[in-house]
Design brief:
Length: 128
């Protein structure tokens, strides 16, 4: 669903819109100041000499898709706490298993002539 900002702003009351404009203007000015300072001092890109994780956290960070960095006291990003339990969404796998159980899938993967087209249609329907 795509919603144009004009419809969103017309739906809120005037006081909230004025507050939003004020905060948005302050944010834009702070961004303009930071970008100007970066351009003047020629430091648009900050090159790091080490990754944001320690050597003992390398494998857990790289294998955890939900790991996120946070800004620490030294103004650099690091992994301070990793989520220990990652829940997997198995809805698509369950739907595919149900579709394969309900269809005639005796020899899937073996060229069976007319049945091959039906199996391909079933697989593409489940995947997409």
């Amino acid at each position: 669903m795509v919603l144009h900002p004009h419809y969103l702003f017309s739906a809120i009351d005037n006081a909230l819109y004025i507050k939003y404009r004020k905060l948005n203007r302050a944010h834009a000015l702070s961004l303009y100041k930071a970008m100007s300072e970066m351009m003047v001092h020629n430091n648009l890109v900050k090159i790091k000499d080490h990754p944001p994780y320690s050597t003992k956290l390398e494998v857990p960070v790289l294998l955890n898709s939900t790991a996120h960095t946070s800004l620490d006291k030294t103004s650099s990003y690091s992994f301070s706490k990793l989520p220990s339990l990652v829940t997997a969404d198995t809805t698509n796998a369950q739907l595919a298993a149900q579709a394969l159980k309900s269809a005639n899938t005796v020899r899937v993967g073996v060229d069976q002539g007319k049945n091959l087209f039906a199996h391909l249609m079933l697989i593409t329907h489940v995947l997409f």
